[in-house]
Queue: 2 jobs
Job 1
Amino acid sequence: MKKTNILLLFLFSIDIFSVGEVFVINDYKDMDRIINFPNTEKYKVIVADLHTHSVFSDGAVWPNVRVEEAVRDGIDLLAITEHLEYQPHIDDIPHPDRNRSFDIAEDIAKNKDLTVINGAEITRMFPPGHINAIFIEDANKLIYLDEAKISEAKEILKEVPEESLTNYEDLSWLEDAALASLWPVKSALIEARNQNAFTFWNHPAWSSEEFIGQPMLREIHKEFFRDNLLHGIEVANGDGYSEEAFRIALEYGLTVLGTSDVHGLIDWDYPSSIGAHRPVTLILSESNSIDAIKSSLFSGKTVVWFKNNLIGLEDNILELTNSYLKAKKVEILENSDIARVEIENVSDVRFIIQVLDQSSVVNESNLIEIAPNEKTVLQIDSGIDKGSLDVKILNAFIAPNKNLLTTLKF
Ligand SMILES: [Zn+2]
Ligand SMILES: [Zn+2]
């Protein structure tokens, strides 16, 4: 009896029950990794990655790594969105509660400059493919195993090619996955709507080889848009960008998103040594509150930053470029009409601009790179009174293949 007490005391005293304590990672700051998009005068700019995975579905890391990576990248808002149905690690890491990875991540993020929200990936074959629901209250209610359909589920499994199963020792979890996939996706989306979730269509262009030669938009998607069950669409996922997804977003008024959908390590997928960064969604929000951020997502106030491109609605991109590219006349060169104009870029985007009035700039070609977080000086010859330059931003897209036109005032 006494021995047991001592053992219990020992176990509790080393705090083994707090994952946050056990998995502390040093908080070394790699400034090259920090994604820098300052607030504009009107909006908070929330840097968000709303699609990530951990070992609680098919990812390769514990949720704390997702949190630490996000902090290092300067992410403000993170969703860990496990596949509800596809659970290849479930025998090693049994977790009847599908909110578990969120609970762990939220706990670890408590004292950090990062907000973690609950999310899930509703996973079905195409169509409709995969759909994320974020700001959910309870992931468990988005999955349902209807035991009456077990023989139907077994039939589905017979069609899975054997070679795709060789990675797994125990296949019992697949039966549950097949059973879960038989619950209509619409029922899951209605539950998500009951929880006031924001939902978006994941990687529409690259989730299945079925897309080859076929339009990706099907009747079921249109029905979900109409019924307010699907609110956004990923135009960028991982290392891919889809113009067709952007076109669908514009046609159906969907919010555009860019996400990492990371399964392994962010730094391996996006090494800072080569200046890479994960795709993010920049949310233009009235305040830092969750309600305000959510409302901006519903009203389409987002810009995707993918590789070195800004993708989104014209008004939203203009809000950013007006704030991030500040031009001012610093001097008029002696005995001339040439003005030295300094353009300060306070963001992480390397803006590639084409000057539309070709005769204006005298010290550069009409194609100019405005380096991130630096000042670039142009010499402009158009008369002392000229106070603006019309430009096309070649890496800002307001529609497929359509660049932002704007005016730099100085
Ligand atoms: Zn997916
Ligand atoms: Zn995913």
Job 2
Amino acid sequence: MFIVELSDLQGLITALQGNGYAVIGPTVRDGAITFDTLNSVDELPRGWTDVQEAGSYGIRRREDDALFAYNVGPHSWKKFLFPSRLRLFAAQKAGKGFEVDPAPTGTLPRYAFFGVRSCELAAIAIQDKIFMDGKYTDKHYKTLRKSACIIAVNCVRVGGTCFCDSMNTGPRAKAGFDLALTEVMADGKHHFLVEVGSPLGKSLLQKVTHREAQDAEKVQVDRILKAAEDKMGRTLDTQKLPRVLQDNFEHPRWEDIAKRCLSCANCTMVCPTCFCSTVEDVTDLTGDHAERWRRWDSCFTTDFTKVAGGNMRMSTRTRYRQWMTHKLSNWVEQFGTMGCVGCGRCITWCPVGIDITAEATAIRENSMSTLNG
Ligand code: SF4
Ligand code: SF4
């Protein structure tokens, strides 16, 4: 483990840019901490934090100059790896036929994601399984993902809606990064403890002024991260949860949720693991040019389950049940893990504050089966 002083952190951004990466990181925009192109440490949310609760989000000034003292915001990295709109191909009339122009993958940017939280590493690992590690590969995703560099940042404070500890996905990054930083502000110091996670990370660190961390500095970081873990406000008991939810398919709580849920799909848009999309064809007025676009879709929209002969999920009750049971139950059969990493975004950004941890707990506690964990 190594130490990089605050004054030398710019060197890491410069080294990434020197290696040809487009650096993307957190910055304050439109009253939120969002992700955007980063050229300088000065663009980070220095001295800002966020305040999150079910159905509410805000940012506030801190009394110090911390760069990473906030938790996950409305954006997730899927915005870059799995963009909300993607042109799959264009077709231009040529003689009696059409010339097809597929979406290019050779000119895609090489991203360096700066400030990736531990739960987000888990979310990226989940989307890797879906888009590139299984039988079917998304070429666009794979090209971006394979060339991406990940600079993780450990959470030294937990947000109001996080429950990564329950999902075993945080707050400390354990794998899946090139470098992982922990921001330390104590005893008049402001520096970063750096863990190297790959040969790429090692070569990047060589370009940044750094020194070996002393044992006391490593212990200090362990203590800071343990304190964050202990302060986690929300929990989700995952013991036998897939089975509990399956056994309670007709539980009255689903109807109770439906009375509050607006079926707005916010929860799926902000979720870093949700991956559903639809495909739309558009043509110009002449009929000479057509394009096929992929865009994010959601199991909360009525069109999502429209098939010949009708719609199999007409009610909000069935749509919310589908979403939650997929995340916390069926996903395990499909992909070997739960589809939730405990980031809390769906709780914060739900306009009526529906909380997946509270709903799952309510179903468990009033289980209609004898199985209650
Ligand atoms: S279901 Fe909610 S808490 Fe879980 S990963 Fe998605 S947004 Fe985060
Ligand atoms: S749970 Fe909340 S965010 Fe999700 S669809 Fe319902 S109202 Fe919208």
